[in-house]
Amino acid sequence: MSRYAGPVIDPHHHLWDLSLKRHPWLGVRPEAEEMVFGSIEALRRDYLPSDYQRDSNRQNIVATVHVEAGWRDDDPLGETLWLEGQADTRVARRLVARVPLAHPDAEARLEAEAARPRVVGIRDIVSWDADPAKRFALRPGLMSDPAWRRGLKAVTRLGLSFDLMLYPPQMAEAQRLVADFPDTLFILNHCGSPADRSADGMRLWAEGLRELGHQPNVRLKLSDPVAYDPQWTLDSLRMVIRHGIDCFGAERAMFASDFPVTGLHASFDAIYEAFRTIAADLTMDEQAALFFDTANRTYRLGLDRSAFSDRTSA
After folding, report:
1. What's the pTM value of the predicted model, to 2 decimals?
2. Which is nearest to 184 in space by CA: 210, 137, 148, 209?
3. Mind telling me which residue stretches traverse the membrane in this protein (predicted)?
């Protein structure tokens, strides 16, 4: 078994500067100190390119994709402009921006994002649960809402992809969505978010992921598998990750860190060590797809893998 030691693209992480006061979910909220992945107290600190470099420097990361980090609604385009002002050209080389698709000004906001050269995708989280601690979206049923779908139509018209973050009970609604938008490229976040670890919950997740894997316009981001598995073991991660690869194939799946959120339950080196170990029995072409090629193609990075040197992983 040969472990991948080539260049790595990390297609999902976040940055923030709390002094900007632009991330309300990271403020003190006594009514919701716990989220679905536990306490967020450890995330209430700046996380800048230098912090990401420190955490990732043993993993041969050659480029990253920044995914929106819950920037305030009343400052459209603010996060993108802030990220463009960061000096690092390797970190946040491409951006997935946030636009609430049902907003009355969604189309204008999307056009403003699409005009920025580093923006290649949009995310508007639809994850909803009856438990407020698990809830990311303000209301259920967004994927079926006509106004939200009009926004998604504009995403497609502008040539942007859509990062889809949901819970397994919403996968049937998502199947209808991706079938109704065959020209939209969807990237399912966080292994499909298997938050309910009961036998029934995991069965719903596994079956829903299989159905979404049949849709050619969906790709899977194998990001933060520890979020819903805080007492994780290599075997528990292997079950989730290998099912995802089985459903989508390496050519439509990609490993990603989701740092610093993943840092609540694992170090950067630990999560990439798990990725490398779990993928080690795949062919080298399949491993290269998971660590580099799928992300390179999905987020239009245009990099040549052969231009980078290999490095032994941590």
Report:
1. 0.95
2. 148
3. none
